[in-house]
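anyone else get weird line breaks when pasting these?? whatever heres mine. first is seq + tokens for prot A
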Amino acid sequence: MSEFYRLLWHKTKRTQLLLIGLSLSIAVLAAVPLYFQQTLINGLAYGGTSLHQVLVLGTQYAAAALLAITLKLYLQYRSAMLGETIVRHIRGRILANHSHKRRADDPSRAADGTVVSMLTAEAESVGLFVGEAVTTPVLELGTFLSILVFITASEPLLGLFIVAVAVPQAMIVVAAQRPVNALVKQRLEFLRTAADRTVDAASP
């Protein structure tokens, strides 16, 4: 997996840097609406906030939320574009390599059914993964930390409670990742075998 991430970073570094920047910006903005909500509620509950101040805070809250939504849409668009680009690149390389080995009658070439599976389901999955492999963890972890820092600064005990709940969940996810990877590998092998049998059955 580490080799895959190194190759991914080497091939898509410039786009990934843009996506990471967008993810971090969205993560930071995640705590901004909470600040405006807290200020509005405290001001209305305990007094001392005029109608003008309420309107200003409401406008700032709406602007922050609109900016976050816009950045999320752009992030999704660029991630999808990167994923589709990788899918086309993978399919082109697989098809060119298989065609070359087939013309050379190379015995090491993959079976036609395996290539069909690689061109369809596997290339699509890899492309989608590449588009989200870096940005999704950065966005989710950054958003969690942003909100956690804000909550801890306001209510330290509540922040500690959130950490106490989140840490065991993270440990479970990490522990479950290896069995999940094994199941994914079995699924790919099954699809390749099924595709090979289908192609062989259809051959004259």
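and prot B, same format (seq, then tokens)
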Amino acid sequence: MATSHIFSVLGGGRARVLVIDSDRESRRQLAQLLEDDGHSVEQAADGGDIPFACGRWSPDVVLMDVATPDVSGLQALVRMKADERTSSIPVILMSAFADADLEPEFTAMGADVCLDKRAHDDVIREAVESVLA
């Protein structure tokens, strides 16, 4: 675990979470859920926003939809893991695809956790806490 993650989590239990989803309502709901848990949340609409958001805000974890319009979540994941400045940031990928066969492919690309976009709040909370532990 990177030092920034340790300080963020130990500093009052708040982590910085970057939520990326092209659907405004999905972003809002995820942000509200995480803010209710005491996390600080930044939002973006596209995987192409990651370099700017990570450079400006240094998130502890990225929660990202696979299907974003300009730069997909998968393309953004590959770029993040190839960049030494962002390679250690845990990534939770969310997909509307219920095909469990895709999870090994996503984790091989660098995702720490893969979730169905319809996952219950408790599952999302558990995923965030697991990558921060």
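btw re prot B: Confidence is low (pLDDT under 50) at residues 1-12. Helices lie at 3-10, 24-36, 50-57, 73-82, 102-108, 121-132.
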